[in-house]
Input
Amino acid sequence: MLEDIERVLISKEEIQQKVREIGKQISEDYRGKNLMLVSVLKGSVVFMADLMRAIDIPVSIDFMSVSSYGCGTKTSGIVRIIKDLNEPVAGVDILLVEDILDSGLTLSYLMEHLSAKGAGSIRIATLLDKPERRRVNLLADYKCFSVPDEFVVGYGLDFDEKYRNLPFVGVLKPDAYTKK
Ligand code: IMP
Ligand code: MG
Output
């Protein structure tokens, strides 16, 4: 797997440091509130697992699964809910946890969906942000890193379901996209 990586963009140590900072900030901002972390599967699970342990106030967690990408690297613009939340969220302060804010189509759809369910508040925590690619007006409330408009993998992010288990964020060699 490592032989497919062209270069490391964000190291394991840089990620750990930043996740700790953001966890601390979230703990301060949500003290006394009814915080629920909602992880958007599958890309955000690694970030979710680290972020929740960097938060020192009570939280509940849930997972949603949506599809907006096929096995390629281009957004389809179509968002479909495959798995919704298990519990009602009326009055709950939701923090959506994402791997990457790209076009923003997925998250803006989810925000509308959750606000229709009566969530008390909805904010976004994202590991990565690709601001150049935004197609809707959406900003992350908490973000770890901005990245250039390049396809990245690792720390949860995949290409064709692979590379999610890399402990860093990196860029693939061109031939990794075509090999099977
Ligand atoms: P969007 O913001 O609706 O365009 O979609 C965001 C989703 O697309 C993310 O949750 C990722 O699953 C996927 N995605 C976008 N850019 C990348 C990338 O560079 N690497 C891996 N997945 C990506
Ligand atoms: Mg994702």
About this structure: The two ends are 12 Å apart (CA to CA). The chain has a mean pLDDT of 93. The first strand starts at residue 5 and ends at 10.
